[in-house]
Amino acid sequence: MQRAGIRAFVGKLSMDIDIASRPTYVESSAEASLAAAESFVRGCRALTAHLPEHQRLVHPVLTPRFVPTCSDELLEGLGKLAAADEEGLRIQSHLAEAADQVEWVRSTRGMEDIEVFDKHGLLTSRTVQAHCTFLPPPDLKRLKERGTAVAHCPLSNAYFSSQPFPMKEALGEDVKVGLGTDVAGGYSVDVMSAMRWSVGVARMRAGGPPQAVEVKDGDSSKGDEKGKVLDWKGALYLATRGGAEALGLPKGTGTFDVGAPFDAQQIRLIEYPALFGVGALDFFDLEPGEKVAITEEMVEKWWCVGDERNRMGMWIQGKEVGVGIFA
After folding, report:
1. Which residues, 6 or more positions from 186, have their beta carbon under 8 angstroms from its beta carbon?
2. Whole-angstrom Cα distance, residue 125 to residue 83?
3. How many Cα atoms within 13 Å fall on the side-chain side of residue 64?
4. Which helix (H) or strand (E) holds 144?
5. Which residues contact 164 (CB under 8 A, 6 or more apart)?
6. pTM confidence score
7. Per-block average pLDDT, block size 10, for the chain (327 residues)?
């Protein structure tokens, strides 16, 4: 990934309790799991230690699988490892994803899922928690206070959770939210799919058509508080700038501000000079030879049906990377 020029935050799974997992996933003890995590962090950092800091694209992440698979000893050790790390170790896990998970934690730990993570120092400004579908408003406020971000995986939630993520409430609390695909949690690993699902889920949850929801630093228009629903612009924000904030990327990432890291895609909507739509796009009202200005409606059409055929170029940290890698 470093050689390909791709940003990556890679975790070595930590778990010492077996609940019907593959035997290779489970370590023999909390001590063994902590030793493996420390070794992974050192090894990952050694791969890029020779590079200037701004060129180090791959970073290690502490990855307790989720509370039911981790003993208190392991979680406490991971929290201490993160707190002692001078470079600011990131943490990722799954939080309050499903009803049975939440009940399991209550019955075995005597507290809520989020309280277990917080107790062991694993809710930090460098933490990303996936799902969070069963968090009530007070717990969303706790995420905001700790600076912890949410990876919203709408397609995965449709498959594995019995209720959707409370997006409106999370954004209302200024919780950092980015979009995720959960890799195996559904049929698509494409963030374009995650954007579309996030809007669909939000509309179903609201029970009606959208008025734009306000997202931090976004330019979506304000709607009536009662009827606010995530729209396509808000979802595009969450997939770009929102994700950069959730991951703690360098200041300005996901914007075109002067001095910000240049992480960008070149999207082509129209094939010139014939004025055909690229990929799945069609623009029936264009005439050959006509001077065309890109409109918001055209961008929305790309958001709805566009795919990798519209992606003409990609840059990460200012360097162009091969588009074929992502096709």
Report:
1. 153, 155, 156, 158, 159
2. 11
3. 33
4. helix 137-146
5. 133, 154, 157, 158, 201, 202, 204, 205
6. 0.89
7. 93 91 87 97 96 94 96 98 95 95 95 97 97 96 98 93 92 96 85 95 79 52 49 96 95 93 95 91 86 94 96 94 60
